[in-house]
Amino acid sequence: MKKLLALTALCSVVVLLLLTPSCNNSSSNKPVASGKEDSLKKILDRGEYLANHVAACLDCHSTRDITKFAGPVVVGTEGQGGFEFGPGVGVPGKVYAKNITPDTETGIGTWTDDEILRAMTHGINKAGDTLFPIMPYARYNQMAKSDLLAIVAYIRTLKPIKNKIPARQLMIPIAMAYPAPALQASVDANVLPAETNKVAYGAYLGNMAHCTDCHTPLTPQGAPDMTKLFAGGHLFDLGTFKVVASNITSDTATGIGAWTEERFLNKFLPLREEKNYNFNPGKENTVMPLPAMAGMTDSDLKAIYAWVKTIPAVTNKIEKYPK
Ligand code: HEC
Ligand code: HEC
Fold it and tell me: Ligand 2 centre and the CA of 305: distance in Å?
């Protein structure tokens, strides 16, 4: 608890520093590193890693080029929002990712840390509006406070971009979609498992990477059906291509039970090289944020694999590219 408080204080310092114009973009006149700056840098590095590669905030909150394989983020649009989620991905209406750059008019430049945390973990924004749960706040509600604060500190360093986001249009009252039962009132007791506890750490990262949201069929109420965890089947129709989320349970016939760790890693690793996504794959494309997730370390991907292997088998045959 004491540690957490210290970290909170530390983060406010980062934020203050970053908000001071003279400290912005100061790469040319970096102050001499001290122990404190080292720990600030550590926090920002952790935030950058999680926001870009694990929680994948910037995958949804930037422009994705879906004419390329796995829809890589268009460089220079990080955090500006605007990506549309519509009926093709299961949204009853149209919801747009918001501008989360520090722009004070159209972004989150005027929000406090607590306001950003509330949006991230409870889906309530600064204005008090409830966010549609395609924003994975039910997953981030399980994250350790230190990681949440690291992400907040990092997104405050994004380049401010002026980009006004259209209002969403929902066909159902937002209260119907709000995942209240899945949300803990406070995130203060959440723990960051030790990396040496591979399965627990993998589960922690996999939760943050919201594998569940895409790979689990939904109940009629629209929540992930935990009795069919990872059984796949969710259709994504982006207009130019259609793809169905795979069964990634350990079922050997219809899931990935026969996969080795190496094969699992090979789903991600090639996407570390631009040439492996910078092409138009036509109809055999995917929405899985592979270029982003490929930036996870090998050991983090291995931890996720160790966790995925523990998910019970569910037989559910998937046709990845439906006609
Ligand atoms: C799967 C896509 C997706 C991911 C991943 C995602 N978001 Fe969002 N986020 C959204 C959408 C869509 C909205 C708007 C929801 C609405 O309007 O109801 C939103 C809203 C927000 C808001 C509220 C902004 C406002 O002006 O109301 C904040 C803050 C935010 N996201 C931060 C984050 C952070 C930080 C992360 C990573 C930890 C993240 N998001 C990850 C899709 C996503
Ligand atoms: C935005 C939705 C989305 C998210 C998030 C997502 N996936 Fe996927 N995933 C898909 C889709 C769609 C496919 C099928 C197309 C393809 O192979 O990429 C897929 C395919 C896969 C495959 C290949 C299975 C096969 O039979 O070829 C694996 C393995 C996988 N996902 C694991 C994961 C893991 C682990 C996570 C979390 C770290 C994750 N996915 C997060 C949408 C998603």
Answer: 12
Which residues touch 197 (CB under 8 Å, ≥6 apart)? Answer: none
Average pLDDT of adjacent 10-residue blocks, the chain of 323 residues: 41 40 42 78 98 98 96 97 95 97 98 98 98 97 98 98 98 95 96 98 98 91 87 94 97 97 98 97 96 98 98 97 91
Distances (CA, A) of 100 to 24, 125, 200, 296: 18, 11, 30, 22
CA distances from 283 to 59, 238, 269, 273, 286 (A): 21, 10, 22, 21, 9
Q: What is the Cβ-side half-sphere exposure of residue 257, based on CA atoms within 13 angstroms?
A: 14
Taking a C-beta distance cutoff of 8 angstroms, is the pair 14, 48 a contact? no
The pLDDT of residue 222 = 74
Contact 161, 80 (CB under 8 A): yes
Q: For residue 304, which atom of ligand 2 is closest to its CA?
A: 35
Is the CB of residue 125 below 6 angstroms from any atom belonging to ligand 1?
Answer: yes
In single-letter form, the type of residue at position 90 comes to G
Atom of ligand 1 nearest to the CA of 170: 18
Output the six-digit token pair for 224. Answer: 């992930």
